Amino acid sequence: MKLAIAGSSGRMGRTIIEAALGVADMQVVAALDRPDSPELGRDCAEFLGTRLGVPIVADLAAIGQADVLIDFTRPAATLAHLQICCAAGVGAVIGTTGFDASGKAALAAAAASTALVVAPNMSVGVQAMLRLVELGARLLAQGYDLEIIEAHHRDKIDAPSGTALQLGEVAARARGQSLEDCAVFARHGNTGPRSAGSIGFAAIRGGDIIGDHTVLFAGTGERIEITHRSSSRTAYAQGALRAARFLQGRSKGLFDMQDVMTS
Fold first, then answer.
1. 130 phi and psi, to 5 degrees?
2. What are the catalytic residues?
């Protein structure tokens, strides 16, 4: 399988390149970065002390060389990359977060032309956590308050994280609610008592925290916490490669990591 990697000189891009080098049935054929990147022209594997013969470029046409694009960048860049994917029949694994309503609609429209796996978190452990949170939200629907706490590095630009929002969506559906109707994203000053049925979010930003997520069910006299902590980006990269394999033989459609896990 031929891969194109977006954001190839970033932390996630480099982790994906390193993971792909260890897989016999995958080959990185295109490495993309923004036009102002100081890494343009360098071999995409140079940071590992080796060379693949694949220079980092800003020319999006390079995507057309691949079978699948793996993209963990930013919404505007991802949507631009998707235009090339749709025109060239290239599948895409998208871990980008922070899409607004129009961005999500654009993803759905692109899925009519090519196959996409879109997930805010590609790790297998987080997929298990989503299932556990769904079960917990059903069992603890009455008498338990639900809070979601997430922590990421200082450079993360969106909050709450896409994973935190996905956890909230899963929990809300399990309770028969819409997250839009019950989410509380900020508390400050005299907020009054907690609203029954609400789902609260708290976001921590600092240092080099890769990604921690906790779903807290707080009842009377007890609390249950479901936590996932990332100690390395490798788990995300391995999940992305698994998602790329899932796209083999699929020409169009919008999928998520739960689809990948159950295939």
1. -60, -40
2. 152, 156
Q: What is the pTM of this model?
A: 0.85
| Burial (0-12, 13-18, 19+ Cβ within 10 Å), 171 | buried
- Ramachandran angles phi, psi of 139, nearest 5°: -70, -30
Does residue 192 come out as left (phi exceeding 0), alpha (psi in the -120 to 50 range) or beta?
A: left
User: 31-70 pLDDT, tens per residue?
Assistant: 999 999 999 999 999 999 999 999 999 999 999 999 999 9
Task: For residue 55, say if its preceding peptide bond is cis, omega within 30 degrees of 0.
Answer: no
Q: For residues 91 and 144, what is the distance between their CA atoms, to the nearest angstrom?
A: 42
Residues 3 and 62: beta-carbon distance below 8 Å: no
Conformation bin of residue 147: beta by default, left when phi > 0, alpha when psi is -120 to 50 = beta
* Residues across the chain: 263
Tens digit of each residue's pLDDT (9 = 90 or more) over 238-253: 999 999 999 999 999 9
Listing DSSP states for 65-116 in one string gives: G-SEEEE-S-HHHHHHHHHHHHHHT-EEEE------HHHHHHHHHHTTTSEE
